[in-house]
Structures are given as structure tokens and as C-alpha cells.
Amino acid sequence: MDMPTTAARPGRAWHRGVPLAIACAAGLFAGGCSVDVRDPSVPAASATTTTPATPTITPGHDAAAVAAQDLPFAAGGTLAPGVPVGISDELKGAPGWKLEKDSVAGASQYAKADGCVAAARVSTGQDPLVRGDDRESTVALFQYLDATIQPSYLKPENLQWGGTPDAPGKNVEVLAFEQAATGGRSTAVLARVFGTAGSSAYISISCPDVATLAAARKDVVRYLPLLPPSA
Q: Tens digits of per-residue pLDDT, 88-134?
């Protein structure tokens, strides 16, 4: 499995310390860590080039119908096999935010004037993580990043499924992992594995404190919708 293989959007320890997934979320912005955690027993997927292209849709698949409905974990099978989701980059134009890095090492990074930072990526080659359904697969992703993470640490949340900041789409269910790290910064990771699509979406947010994190998460929901593949 090759975590950082990225698909572009169309057009563009919880107790004693900070778990790897959270440490990496913060480290993304300091350059000291990455979510490129490879399993040596799984052959790496070949890298793809980030391009502003519309994904290819499986013939006979009603992409519009999928995009028009909420996508809870149980509905992951309605996606076209092997066609990755996308992720918006509208956070770069949100009040107080700016784009820091565009698709560097597979992730786009954003910074906010109040000290918050965010990173977003969509990765392909996620088949080794696929379990019974997308929720189980998403738990597997978090545990792949850090084996100490227990399912009870992960809380269901929703991101926007398509739409724009001014015209929100439907909801797509994800799992969230939040940690107020010792020494100050509060961090959250929101992720979803799309088993049928063989891809995953991962958004990390790190802020100076709980209050700024709460505001940043609202911005992420509004300005970083996950994008259904569309013809």
C-alpha cells in the first residue's frame, strides 16, 4: 500500500503521549514527519501524477445519483470501483486562510492567520486496508498509522459531499481523532477509506488551542468538501 499516491480533485497514544497519526499531523507542517507509513509486506502502488483532470467513470455507473445522496459508511459500495474521490482546495480562499504548499509530497497545506494549519490529501492504492465496510476500513487506516489507536478513540463526523462553500452538498461520513497535545497545540485528524473506490481521504488540522481548532474545523467542513467522481 502506498499511502501518498494522490488523486487530484477535478479541476484541481492517546494516554501517555501523542499517537503517530497526531504527531504526523503536526509534523507535516514542521517537515519532521509524514503519513507516508509503508507496510513492507505490501507491494507499493505505482505513483500517479497530480493533474487537473476529470476522473474516468465506470460505464453504466450513475455518478450523479451517488453525488446527490449522503454517503454514510454503509453506502460506500455505491461508488464506482477503482475511481477515487476528490477533495476541494477552496480553503485557500477562505477568510484568514492561505495556501502554503500545493500537492507537496501528496498533500496540500494551508495556514490560517490565527496559527492553525491544515493538510489534505486523497490517496489511492488503499486496497490492503479494505475490511468489511468503510467504517472498519477507516479504523484500519488509523491503526495502520498507529497500532495503539483503539476504535473507541474514533468519533463519527460528517464532511461535505460535493457542493461549494455557498451551496453545500450532501454529507459524507468520516472518523475523527482529536488530541490536545501536551505543551499546547490541539490537533484533529478526519479520515475515510472508500473501499470500493480503493482510495482514502485524510485531513489533519493543528491549532494553538481548543477554541481555534473548533473554528478551523468549521472552516474545513465548509471549504474542503470531498468531491464525488463526476462525468
A: 999 999 999 999 999 887 789 999 999 999 999 999 999 999 998 99
Q: What is the pLDDT of residue 61?
A: 60
Answer yes or no: is 7 within a domain.
no
15 falls within a domain: no
Residue 8: inside a domain, yes or no? no
Number of structural domains in the chain: 1
Residue 48 belongs to some domain of the structure = yes
Residue-number span of the structural domain to which 104 is assigned: 20-227
**53 or 65, higher pLDDT:** 65
Tell me which DSSP letter residue 128 carries: G
pLDDT over 80 at 34, yes or no: no
**CA 43 – CA 225 distance, rounded (Å):** 31
3-state secondary structure 130-192: CCCCHHHHHHHHHHHHCCCCCHHHCEEEEEEEEECCCCEEEEEEEEEEEEECCCCCEEEEEEE
Q: Per this entry, what is the length of the chain?
A: 231
